[in-house]
Amino acid sequence: MIEISPLRPDDRARWEVLARGYKAFYETELADAEYERTWQRLLQAEDVFGSAARLDGQVVGIAHYLFHANPWTAGSCYLQDLFVDEAARGQGAARALIEHVAQVARERGVERLYWHTKQDNARARILYDKVASFRGFISYVRPLT
């Protein structure tokens, strides 16, 4: 059975393994200091939030999310990062993390949960097509630094 909870201080080592796996999948390199900075922000849970999926007590998945204003609704929740250990995939961790974030968002009164993925992330999109609607948007990113 999958257990979902906020990230805990003792999740640090396992979180970093999964966070690095996520960044590797998206071909993004970060300095060690960036992982530490992000970890501290997640533990503070002020502007970004993190949850863990546990299977038999072991952290097998992570989700990072944030809330922001929306001019048309009561706000939105952006699921920034979602990653499950390859060995644990297909056991419900990703779905449980999405449902957890959706519940947290409902409790905060926001009207929309959304996320992005690569168009060729076929395995994840099978799940995403079951729990959300693909509306055909294309994402552009313009680095400012």
Automatic annotation (TrEMBL):
It comes from the Bacteria. Transmembrane segments: none annotated. GO terms for molecular function: N-acetyltransferase activity. Keywords: Acyltransferase, Ribonucleoprotein, Ribosomal protein, Transferase. Residues 2-145 form the N-acetyltransferase domain. Pfam families: Acetyltransf_1. GO terms for cellular component: ribosome. This is Ribosomal protein S18 acetylase RimI-like enzyme.
